[in-house]
Design a protein that fits this description.
The structure is a homodimer of 332-residue chains. With 332 residues, chain A is an alpha/beta fold. The first copy, chain A, contains 14 helices and 7 strands. In chain A, α1 packs across α3, α2 packs across α3 and α13 packs antiparallel against α14.
């Protein structure tokens, strides 16, 4: 509604100068539902693109209670002492429903939020994972253009959000706990295969023994997977974010990963693939959206699913019928 | 070309009577590219549907050399001695390219092919996995209507073919070898998570010790995964298809799985899900096919990918541009 007049060229210049207010403003435009805003956002992103990419993008996931915020705060603060500038983003499609978004409560990262070399942005709210993921993906470009050289993307792992985050980062870190009884519950299938490293958090005090055992087990499990294209063998590390232990070890693993994948070119190959992935994914999502929101289709779809469930029609015949209906309705 | 006139009602009656020639003829219609044939095939499938479903569908995968044919022959022959009627199908999208289709050389299963309670059909050839998978999926219906109560679907694991087979069977079996040095190479990521059971084949003679060790390792790895929706804990079994050892053990595992999943309803839930999956998948594939084969799009697509790779345009802007081009070209 309050479509304030924005000068995109001015905003781009300010972002490139590292102005945090301009960066925040641009991200707000990216997340807007106002068409005028989106056009401006588009313009800004395309002008920031040539200045983006020069960063390490790290995805972090783990079940609630694993200590993600504390970990990100510890890692973020550590990195700023190493002269890095750190941006923390999030993909949480549930935030618009629950109203309780991750990173929404900035007090969760009290120290990091005060750190002038860190930029924290709560998850965009949105109706769909696709929308939220796109906003985060575009925000990465803006943050990089503003000079942030480490981008951390947090996800709580709702629905397919890990896949989305995995597809926008260079390095994917899975946080786990040991000594919590059944430490393997709650992690969705396939997540372990995505991980470039597993960090077992809260590996301190009475937990240390169990954590060490878990390390051996996870290492064994990770070795059962075939090597990734990058030829990187995923690692398992122990840490205690609360006690600030093991954080530098994890950063060393990240650095090792980056140097190894840059050497064999899989770093840039992966980024290219990710770009193409988002390009095609956006197209495919839009095509489906067009089809399934067609009013004729909406009515017929439920009918057909019932017929399929009652073995009245094969799924393929039903699909063919709906497609015919769709294309003929578009021709009129 | 030789679109022989077929009486579909007659063919359906013959299939239901268990006539193998009629069954083969119907499958040939399903695989045809002739539109008239396809219409007939469609009619036949929808009339066979109410008589289908009463079977156990088993998917089998494993790298070349693991002994898939020998295993399927051993399992198939064993099942016919238990009064089952067994149909063996395949999903191999590469067959049309390499001309060497799996199951194509029926002599690979010399005994089973002579077994009157077994029906073996080579993989349909086709240009796309989607096409081949659809033909196999429809052939399952026909085989079931013809009275086959165990359907085995073999895949060599090219591209996404395991996922396709996994989505059309009740039970997914991964064949592996031990003692082959690096026994884990060559299996694509994610396959192990799909397996309802891993069978370590060639567990005989000098291989036995290594096979037993591998069994322990795989069991450990499988326990690291969260339980499937069916609450089934995947098993690891040893066998030697060549020596006909362990085959009954595997069949007992299948029976245990079926009774357990039927009891908690996950058996029928999974089948319903699979039907809906194929319905939506067919629609989504067709929408993409329509888009990407549009002549305007084909030209622009490559241009945009280049621009994206050179950071000239964001993947999202590029997607939006192409979609605009597509929909405006359809309106004219």
């Amino acid at each position: 509604k309050r479509a304030k007049k924005t000068n995109p060229e001015h905003l781009v210049r300010q972002i490139l100068a590292g102005n945090i207010t301009a960066l925040s403003q641009a991200i707000t435009l990216v997340e807007s539902k106002n068409n005028l805003h989106l056009k401006t956002a588009n313009h800004i992103i395309n002008n920031c693109l040539p200045h983006s990419g020069n960063s390490i993008r790290i995805g972090i996931t783990g079940v609630p209670g694993v200590g993600k915020s504390t970990f990100i705060e510890a890692l973020g603060n550590y990195l700023t002492t190493k002269n890095h500038r750190v941006a923390v983003l999030a993909v949480d499609p549930s935030s618009s429903i629950t109203k309780g978004s991750i990173l929404g409560d900035k007090t969760r990262m009290e120290d990091l939020v005060k750190n002038e070399n860190a930029f924290i942005r709560p998850s965009a709210s949105g109706d769909s994972l696709g929308g939220v993921a796109q906003h985060t993906r575009e925000s990465i470009v803006l943050c990089e253009a503003a000079g942030y050289d480490v981008i951390i993307v947090e996800t709580v792992g709702v629905g397919q959000s890990e896949t989305a985050v995995h597809s926008m980062v260079d390095f994917f870190l899975l946080l786990k706990l040991a000594g919590a009884g059944d430490e393997l519950q709650g992690i969705k299938r396939g997540i372990m295969e995505m991980a470039d490293t597993i960090a077992i958090n809260k590996a301190d005090g009475d937990n240390l023994k169990a954590a060490k055992l878990a390390k051996v087990e996870f290492n064994r499990a990770l070795h059962l997977y075939p090597l990734k294209v990058s030829r990187w063998q995923p690692k398992v590390v122990l840490c205690s974010a609360l006690k600030n232990e093991g954080i530098s070890d994890i950063w060393n693993v990240v650095k090792l990963y980056i140097s190894q994948t840059k050497e064999n070119n899989s770093f840039s190959d992966k980024r290219k693939e990710q770009n193409t992935y988002w390009f095609l994914q956006t197209i495919n999502d839009a095509l489906k959206q067009e089809f399934y929101s067609n009013s004729n289709i909406e009515i017929e779809l439920q009918k057909r699913i019932l017929q399929i469930e009652n073995s009245k029609i094969s799924p393929f015949t039903a699909a063919r019928d709906l497609l015919q209906l769709y294309y003929s309705s578009k021709e009129i």
